[in-house]
User: Fold these one by one.
Assistant:
Number 1:
Amino acid sequence: MNPKKREQIFAYWKAANPSPKTELRYNSPFELLISVLLSAQATDISVNNATKGLYAEANTPAKMLGLGEARVRHHIRTIGLFNTKAKNVIKTCQILHDQHDGVVPDNRESLEALPGVGRKTANVVLNTAFRQIAMAVDTHIFRVSNRTGLAPGKDVVEVEQKLLKFVPADYLLDAHHWLILHGRYVCVARKPKCGDCGIADLCEFKQKTTAEPTGKNTASSKNKRKKRVSAIRSTRSRSLGSISTGSSSLGSRSSGDSLTGISSSGSSSPGNSSSRSSQSSGSSAKTKKKVQRKKLANKVLLADSKRIDVKTQLADKKQSAAKLVLVDKKKTGGKLKPSNKKR
Ligand code: SF4
């Protein structure tokens, strides 16, 4: 990878996260040292959960020694290798108490002499607690350095040396955090999220994934999301404007019907059925049904009124027929049949 690309990658990370921090919780170099010691083969979250209670009881080497190994073991029992780690914590505290006046040393040699403290732990403490330029190459940094081409190497020492050599001077102090965070959340081990990666165009990894962006974790995806939201908003406001100006052409349509007819494509005209949204088509279908129901009700009323007319006519005919019979009775003196036959 050429220096220009390296510069661009770190410039991107700095712009996205100007002050990167470790995710381990600590209030002093001593707490940081113990947390890093406990974090081997454990997640930062599990370490933070365990140390919350531990540091509440003992936040200095002397207090930790007073607490004792059994109690330390109890506090960190949820972390892997807790038996060995509890022993190392007590031994480290004993050395800090006896040889360093209870103060964490700020040099590699003294740090690496502590039980359970290796090169990586020493680098984290030197870089994070004492703000010295150091590159603690863990599994994430090793992977990102090799995949991107930033500092390819066969082992952690080679990667560490290359990073110290190739990372632009302005970014050396925080490079460790940016690399870890990128490896932990974007350039993950099994399937890197290349679709969400802000440095994808600079990365030299040949097997980049082609998955669609999930819209998480990157500054660029946040910008894309913002643009999409503002585009949708402006489209909606345009749609509302066209509805208000074109309301007269909607005739007897109610304002509620007009609003539900807004589509994301900006077309509010009832005539543009091809571009109408599902919401709009649902609304017009309801209106159609209403009209159909009204027509049906009118038909029923009409049919009812016709039936009433027919009944009335029949009743009138019966009445007039009865009247005729009555008249005939009076004329014939009760003999209806002969007179009816005659007529
Ligand atoms: S493009 Fe893919 S492989 Fe390269 S750094 Fe980004 S996530 Fe990792």
Number 2:
Amino acid sequence: MLNIARVALGQLCLKCGLCCDGTLFTHVALTDDEQKRHPQLGGVIRQPCPALKANTECSVYADRPKGCSRFVCMLGRALEDGEVGLDEAVVLVNELKALRGRIDALVPGPGSPLSKARQYEDRGPDSEVAVEVREARRGLEALSRRHFLGRR
Ligand code: SF4
Ligand code: SF4
């Protein structure tokens, strides 16, 4: 049963990648050991993570930071526990991706959508666009809290 749940989580993560691409987090903190091994990173991996491949696989999976290997989002845990089905979970992932896409469309360019949105809200040249960005950012954060980041 546990293995089936793990397989379902793996399938969901391969359709998602939101904990690596800057949608849920802006960075991953490294442990002291990891900082010693990768001093060039300066203590954090900034997201979108450069190790994230286009197919949402992690290119350093076997040696990924502890902050990554310990993390399973609330939706992933609900899937593992059989409280939500894979199809339903994918719908929620796609809802969050749509909000991310809205921010990326309003604020084009590289970087975490959360960081880009906050910067535009503070210093963006068009106040009407800033209102739309704020609405999308707040929607993204609310959905993240409700289904991905809360404690169960
Ligand atoms: S946010 Fe959750 S479902 Fe998505 S890749 Fe991360 S752990 Fe997997
Ligand atoms: S190292 Fe791998 S698991 Fe960690 S954020 Fe980057 S892509 Fe995701």
